[in-house]
Amino acid sequence: MPRWPHDDPASLAAYYGDPETGAPGKQLVPVAPPFTMYYAGKAVPHIMFHRKAAPALTAALDDIWRACGRNQATVDRLRISAFSGAYNPRYVRGYEPGNPEGRTPRWSNHAYGAAIDFDADHNGFNTGHGTMPQLVIDAFKRQGALWGGDYQGRTDPMHFEFCSREAASKPATLMDVPQTDGDTDGDAAPPAVETPPASPSAGGFFGRLRNWIVTSASGVGLTGLGALTNGEVVAMLLGFVLLIIVGSFLVALWLWGKQNVADWIARHIA
Ligand SMILES: [Zn+2]
């Protein structure tokens, strides 16, 4: 059993409260980091985080502090003290209400108070694993958190979130989950388009097809296909079918000669 709610709107809202009603914002508690953290150059006395994930955040920060020998200089050198945002009631970029692609609006995991970003300057959107120190990644994973550096397709290495991507008990919801929450907090951080490699608008056949295309493409080093709309998926499919028809026609011409092909067409089609 995963310790954290599955990364889909229904499971997240059931556990953390629905951002639509502002419920998560009413369940924030202050987490005081064991070392000094800074936001835009100013010390941050505490980080507001959802009460259900706050103990795990505290444990991860304590773990990081221990791994750095309880030394502020080490924490600063590794840039772990660069806080880049936590609770933020906003949507995943590209999934705002009324987005041009007609995607179902989707709250960022920051809107549940269950995600935190570190050192956005060096761990921007789609920078692979960024410069995130392994000890930070390990500390969060020990708490069962997910790391944005692990996302399929485009990555978000500044980002850690307390949710799970393990197979849900409700397969239908899987299709509606963007694999990337890619999250920079709008105000402070730079890079910022959210990507959703796997599945913009809908689930079902197109969602699966799109997942397949995106996964295959990223397998051969092609990324950035995550934002395919259903229309684009259909166009790719039609193009592929057309290519096969034209290809077989040319092969037939080459094998049997022009006259035989013309005869065959006359007999079977015309
Ligand atoms: Zn984030």
Provide a count of the helices: 7
How many domain regions?
Answer: 1
Biggest beta sheet attributes = 3 strands, antiparallel
User: In total, how many beta strands?
Assistant: 7
What order do the strands of the largest sheet run in, or round the barrel if closed?
A: 5-7-6
Cofactors and ligands present? zinc ion
Walkthrough of the structure:
This protein has 270 residues and is mainly α. The chain has one domain. It contains seven helices and seven strands. The protein has helices at 9-16, 54-67, 72-77, 134-142, 171-174, 204-219, 230-268; strands spanning 28-31, 37-39, 42-44, 47-50, 115-117, 146-147, 159-161. It has a three-stranded antiparallel sheet, with helices on one face. A two-stranded antiparallel sheet has the order 1-4. A hairpin with a 2-residue loop joins strand 2 and strand 3 (42-44). Helix 2 (54-67) runs antiparallel to helix 4. The longest helix is centred in the last third of the chain and has 39 residues, at 230-268. The structure holds zinc ion (ZN). Zinc ion (ZN) binds at residues 110, 115, 117, 159, 183. Zinc ion (ZN) binds next to strand 5.
